[in-house]
Structures
1.
Amino acid sequence: GVVLPSFLIILLIAHFFLQSFQKNRVVNGALQGVRPAVIGLMASVTVTIGYQQLFPLGVQVASSWHGLDIRALLIMVLLLGLRAWKKELHPIWVIGISAVLGVLFYGVWGV
């Protein structure tokens, strides 16, 4: 109910204007200029969320290893190893596997 109207409007706009936008030099230039900012924002969010997950007790404890969440570190290492081993693994699979590991480590086996 909330997402569907917006999705349909964007789908209609894309259907009718996609060809003209692909050939427009101004639009292509703007998209090329925005790309580094998007990558920077994604990197910033990744570092922020990763830091909050690995050190849930905050900045003061992060300077020592006492506040490190071992389960989060283990999930991260497992997924990085899986991604290095299976380079063609789709990101959706990585998200699904991380969700299953999170449920197992924090729900089933967690305290």
2.
Amino acid sequence: RDLHSFPTRRSSDLFGHVAALAKLETILVIGLKLGCLNHALLTINQAQQGGLPLLGAVLVERWKATDDAYRNDMFRSLQDKIPVIGLIPYDEDEAASVKQAAEMFKPLFQ
């Protein structure tokens, strides 16, 4: 199935369909955790095949801080596929992490 197929009961199909038809630029959020890169690459491929414009990706250290080597591997793996807008670092204080993320997105909405 592609993103332009008739929507099914799966909400992801409906969202992808509507976003592609509306030509909405989408931001892909990628967790820095084992398996997330593979899922992101599959999602990028599906979005491109379905005509869903991707503005970029945001990397998120949701579960714990990652080391520089791991983050650099993620950036390298994505560099030819999608622009990386930024990184939301892990912080035990979730409010601080959300505030930092909000600051990162401000330039996109000005």
